[in-house]
Specification:
Blueprint: E1 5-20, E2 27-32, E3 48-52, E4 55-59, H1 66-89, E5 93-99, E6 103-105, H2 108-114, E7 127-128, H3 134-140, E8 149-151, E9 154-160, H4 165-168, H5 171-188, H6 193-197, E10 206-208, E11 213-216, H7 227-245, H8 249-254, H9 258-266, H10 270-286, H11 297-308, H12 316-319
Antiparallel strand pairs: 1-2, 1-4, 1-5, 1-9, 3-4, 6-8, 7-10, 9-11, 10-11
Helix pairs in contact: 1-7, 5-7, 5-9, 5-10, 9-10
């Protein structure tokens, strides 16, 4: 069957560099502002990279398949790597890594070094299907010059194709994204710093409404860490779109407790997320939902567990076989 949507994303990552101190020859490793290495805006609309304040952000071309999306992301990471390597060749940088961390501590000195763009907290307003003011308040009430933590996001986009803009940019679809994508990623990624991020970003039901479809903004950039995670997050989106395509969204949502899913995501409760995951998979089986990857609860849980236990390098360039 032809894909129901097009896929898009604008995931973020942090840049860690290792360099030799010019005066002492000491080897120093630190996470530096991406504004030192990447431009404020991309040069074109192809797979590229720019700074989004302290963190770097990939601008990924829209893709018609998940394989194409992975290829586009790898191309964007390659461009970012080559740009940084060129910078390193002309400085005392001896090594660098790209890290997908939910949150990092920064210093006032590093914020000043990165310039004004790194001292601004938040960007354009987000919206939330459960509380339209929630995310806007959290972002705007934080002073970016004194709040010494920065966070990474892994926003994913669904563009209209067979499914329409109205079907994608709807409360029903976003509720499905929370239950099938957001909750699953909470169970998979158990790093403690996710709980810190969840105080400011990553609330359930967070979105924007572009002309082409919808942008689901709950996720961290964890899924960028490895191509298998990237594949999974868009496979989960395929499950959401299949539920809508088969007109089973209302039936599925009626049998699930939205409050429990919101609690798991908003509080980053991995234990509650596991309970919710079993519930959602049971409902998918009851409604006989099938996709290229989802054939039933048992086999899919085996697949998820394999990914959860997968060994990964902290440097995502290694996981994408670029270093």
């Amino acid at each position: 069957m032809e894909n129901l949507i097009t896929y898009g994303a604008d995931p973020e990552f942090f840049v860690e560099i290792t360099y030799k101190h010019k005066k002492t020859d000491n080897i120093i490793t630190s996470i530096e502002p991406s504004s030192l290495f990447f431009p404020d805006e991309c040069d074109d609309e192809n797979n590229n990279v720019h700074n989004d304040g302290y963190q770097a952000e990939l601008q990924v071309k829209y893709s018609n398949t998940i394989d194409e999306m992975k290829s586009n992301i790898k191309e964007g990471l390659t461009i970012a790597m080559n740009r940084l390597q060129k910078y390193a060749d002309n400085t005392n940088i001896t090594d660098f890594k790209f890290l997908c961390l939910p949150a990092i501590n920064v210093t006032k000195h590093s914020l000043e070094k990165g310039g004004r763009v790194c001292q601004i907290f938040g960007c354009k307003p987000d919206y939330n299907i459960y509380n339209e003011s929630a995310t806007k308040v959290n972002h705007c009430m934080v002073n970016g010059e004194t709040h010494l933590v920065r966070y990474s996001g892994g926003h994913i986009h669904a563009g209209e194709k067979i499914l329409t803009k109205d079907q994608l940019d709807s409360e029903m679809f976003l509720r499905l994204c929370d239950k099938i994508i957001g909750n699953t990623m909470v169970w998979l990624d158990t790093r403690k710093s996710n709980q810190l991020r969840s105080k400011f970003y990553g609330k359930a039901g967070t979105y924007r409404s572009p002309d082409y479809g919808v942008e689901y903004r709950t996720l961290s950039s964890y899924w960028l860490s490895h191509p298998k995670l990237t594949e999974l997050v868009f496979q989960l989106m395929d499950i959401c779109t299949m539920v809508v395509y088969e007109n089973k969204d209302q039936e599925l949502l009626r049998h699930l407790n939205t409050k429990l899913f919101r609690m798991a995501i908003d509080n980053y409760d991995t234990i509650e997320a596991k309970i919710n995951l079993i519930d959602i998979l049971s409902e998918l089986d009851r409604l006989k939902i099938k996709t290229d990857v989802y054939k039933g609860q048992k086999s899919f849980m085996t697949y998820l567990t394999k990914i959860k236990n997968m060994k990964m390098h902290s440097n995502i360039l290694h996981n994408w076989k670029l270093q």
